[in-house]
Amino acid sequence: MNDAPSAWRTATIEKIVPQTSRVSSFFLAPEPPFAFRAGQHVDVRLTAADGYQARRSYSIASAPENNRSVELAIEELEEGEVSAFFHEVAAVGDAVEIRGPIGGHFVWSVEDGGPLLLVGAGSGVAPLMAMARHRAARGSRIPTLLLVAARTWDDVLFREELLELEARGDGFAFVVALSRGAASRAGDHGRRVDAAIAADALSRLPASPLRTFVCGSNAFVETASAGLVAGGLAASVIRTERYGG
Amino acid sequence: MITRGFTGRRTPEDVAARVPPGQALTTDFPVLSAGPTPRIKLEDWSFTLKVGPRPVFKWTWEEFNALPQTSYVRDIHCVTTWSKLDTAWEGVTIDDLLKAAGVEAAKPFVLAHGFDGYSTNLPAADLAGDKAMIALKYDGEPLAPDHGGPARLLVPHLYFWKSAKWVSGLQFTDVDTAGFWELRGYHMVGDPWREQRYHDDP
Ligand SMILES: Cc1cc2nc3c(=O)[nH]c(=O)nc-3n(C[C@H](O)[C@H](O)[C@H](O)COP(=O)(O)OP(=O)(O)OC[C@H]3O[C@@H](n4cnc5c(N)ncnc54)[C@H](O)[C@@H]3O)c2cc1C
């Protein structure tokens, strides 16, 4: 049953692209490829020579429209068993095992409609990027706002591509909240996400969002979703994905 | 398939036997949930026991706290691959709860319901025999909202998503009815020692 959604498959690393000082994209070619929805994740499994295994979940950052190459944006954690392996050992041509797609809650497709509010911090932008890329690939004009929390402007994951997506003028915009750097673009914020920033994000959409996706560390998801609720958003439209911590 | 160059961080020998396959030890307490953390006021809190569709018993916060309280120190295992040893809980065992209600768990399955609309299903046998409780305290303190407070189900021998946060009641059922994550591809039982993570794991 190689086609069962959760069968382990071999996936070869085709390309490694550094994105920020701590996050790199790993493009994996699973064999065989599988269909997925924007927002879903895969489990990655690594096996040592003596059979010891470690597995972790990583969101798919690429759009479902191209499923031959699955992009994972992995942040290197100090002493992290799996993330440090990717950053320090893994090389193009190496193979790992992946299983997926997993997750049926933190998912969005253009058929679900909008407006859409996406809120992410650090590598938590990855599944939101899949949604933004899916939206663009489908030529959708659904009003979408992405609020990104990062330390500095250079830590904004997928920054150049986000600027390009915004420049299309098709209803996609992104706002940045920087905890350690001054905001350089008008409308960005030079502080951590708080209730006022959440309320500001809500006010930039033409109507209250039909769906809101919040992703990042637990502390971030707590603050951001509490801010959105304080800003008047119904808790029932907010879906969260917490990476831990 | 061996991964080139991967050695891994091994679980220390003395506790290795307590860590299920595919899990790694953590010292913090990560949080996972599908939506924002609900804040439930104690005066609005209640706990309902249902058999099939029929409510058979309901407790207020005060009444629930007057039930016999039990302490558990248990290892817990999250499907996202962290395990945590020796976590300390206090609350009302499901055995005591049924006794207080004068109900027999005559049905084979249970759906646990949460104030946030979350639900999870599990075999009734996994709640009986001093294996599970409705936990009110963690580490001697009232259970924090992001960990499921005021009260959560605690079924430490199954993956932790079965330990429903912000629990509002248990419903005994004849049919094994998929809960929130189970509808979305997760396992109907979720035994970490058998690595029952996703629906098609044996
Ligand atoms: C649904 C989901 C999607 C996710 N998507 C992504 C994603 O897209 N990108 C991403 O980067 N992450 C993602 N994550 C997080 C990812 O799964 C891992 O948790 C993360 O990469 C850390 O794993 P690790 O093996 O590197 O670190 P671990 O080894 O698990 O350690 C985590 C941290 O704890 C410390 N630590 C824990 N135990 C020890 C110990 N015994 N000794 C020393 N240090 C220890 C480490 O130093 C490290 O900082 C996702 C998580 C979930 C649940």
TrEMBL record, chain A:
Residue intervals of the FAD-binding FR-type domain: 6-108
Gene3D superfamilies named among the record's database cross-references: Nucleotide-binding domain of ferredoxin-NADP reductase (FNR) module, Translation factors
Secretion signal, residue range per the UniProt entry: none
Cofactors named for this entry: [2Fe-2S] cluster
InterPro entries the UniProt entry points to: Cbr1-like_FAD-bd_dom, FAD-bd_FR_type, Flavoprot_Pyr_Nucl_cyt_Rdtase, FNR_nucleotide-bd, MRET, OxRdtase_FAD/NAD-bd, Riboflavin_synthase-like_b-brl
GO molecular function: oxidoreductase activity
PANTHER family: NADH OXIDOREDUCTASE HCR, PROTEIN RFBI
Protein name: Oxidoreductase
TrEMBL record, chain B:
CDD domains the UniProt entry points to: arch_bact_SO_family_Moco (cd02109)
Pfam entry (one): Oxidored_molyb
Record's signal peptide: none
Domain called Oxidoreductase molybdopterin-binding: residue spans: 35-181
PANTHER family recorded: OXIDOREDUCTASE MOLYBDOPTERIN-BINDING DOMAIN-CONTAINING PROTEIN (PTHR43032:SF4), PROTEIN-METHIONINE-SULFOXIDE REDUCTASE (PTHR43032)
Name of the molecule in the record: Molybdopterin-binding protein
Organism: Hansschlegelia plantiphila
Lineage: Bacteria, Pseudomonadati, Pseudomonadota, Alphaproteobacteria, Hyphomicrobiales
